[in-house]
UniProtKB/TrEMBL annotation:
It comes from Echinicola pacifica. Gene3D superfamilies: 3.40.50.2300. It comes from the Bacteria. This is Response regulatory domain-containing protein. The modification 4-aspartylphosphate is found at D55. GO terms for biological process: phosphorelay signal transduction system.
């Protein structure tokens, strides 16, 4: 069981947010969703999360820029939250690019929801 771990989903697609929420809620994760990187940083100022699912291509602030900002936070707990990229690989990022930005893992779109769940569990059970 998840012990009600808190997952922040940063994704500008309502369809992906809803599908992701349904999969994770079934496992009793507590889900919060936002639409861009700036909203992620705003949420982190007021709430604690155990993991972030981060779309790479978002308006206002993309996932790479947002992850770098998270890693630069002064609060060591918040700056070390596992961040998993969600991407259609639009800009052809490599795993090395993701690691350099501070991302812990990535999932390719279209999402495989079994893989999503196993990846979330892997990072929450470390």
């Amino acid at each position: 069981m998840s012990d009600n771990k808190k997952v922040l989903v940063a994704e500008d697609s309502s369809v992906i947010i809803n599908l992701t929420k349904n999969v994770l809620l079934f496992e009793n994760y507590h889900i919060t969703a936002v639409k861009n990187g700036k909203q992620v940083l705003d949420k982190l100022m007021t709430d604690d999360f155990d993991l972030i699912l981060m779309d790479i291509n978002m308006p206002t602030m993309d996932g790479i820029e947002c992850t770098k900002a998270i890693r630069a936070l002064k609060d060591p707990k918040k700056s070390s939250i596992p961040v998993i990229a969600i991407t259609g690989n639009y800009k052809n990022y490599t795993m090395e690019d993701f690691k350099n930005a501070g991302l812990d893992d990535y999932l390719q779109k279209p999402l495989d929801y079994d893989l999503l769940l196993s990846t979330v569990k892997k990072h929450l059970n470390k």
